[in-house]
Backbone:
């Protein structure tokens, strides 16, 4: 929306939609979340604590995507960081599997109108409407602040002898 691209959904096909739902939820979302917010996060958490678990699983997630995303893997670092914060706060990955599947499904269902063949083409895109971009950034930052503040408040409350 912020780029003002004429995005349109692809024509619906029952078998394609079912196949993509299975692929992006049961395979991509499940496997990547199990790997990065499950295995890598837990190993780093047990080894050095939550700070390294959040940072390390985020970096691992970005490196996993760098082969096809190139320099745009920085977006995966940010998304991995937000997902790791959610994992830290929620304590589980079930919601992250669903969010990851939805994120990927929406991304594949609303393709760019022209094929992007290089990072230079992406960098040439201009922002047609700043409001959706600003709202998206504010929501993302609000989620991060919320997750950090809630976790800090819970720890402070627990240290005063209160219960969760």
Residues:
């Amino acid at each position: 929306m912020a780029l003002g691209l004429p995005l349109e959904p692809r024509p619906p096909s029952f078998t394609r939609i079912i196949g993509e739902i299975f692929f992006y939820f049961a395979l991509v979302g499940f496997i990547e979340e199990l790997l990065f917010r499950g295995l890598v996060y837990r190993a780093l958490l047990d080894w050095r604590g939550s700070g390294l678990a959040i940072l390390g699983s985020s970096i691992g997630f970005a490196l996993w995507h760098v082969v096809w995303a190139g320099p745009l893997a920085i977006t995966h670092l940010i998304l991995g960081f937000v997902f790791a914060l959610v994992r830290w706060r929620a304590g589980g990955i079930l919601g992250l599997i669903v969010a990851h599947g939805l994120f990927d499904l929406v991304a594949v269902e609303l393709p760019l109108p022209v094929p992007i063949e290089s990072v230079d083409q992406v960098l040439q895109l201009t922002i047609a409407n700043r409001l959706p971009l600003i709202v998206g950034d504010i929501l993302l930052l609000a989620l991060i602040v919320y997750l950090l503040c809630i976790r800090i408040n819970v720890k402070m409350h627990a240290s005063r002898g209160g219960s969760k």
Remarks:
- Residues 126-164 form one domain.
- DSSP finds six helices and no strands in the chain.
- Residues 155 and 164 are 9 Å apart (CA to CA).
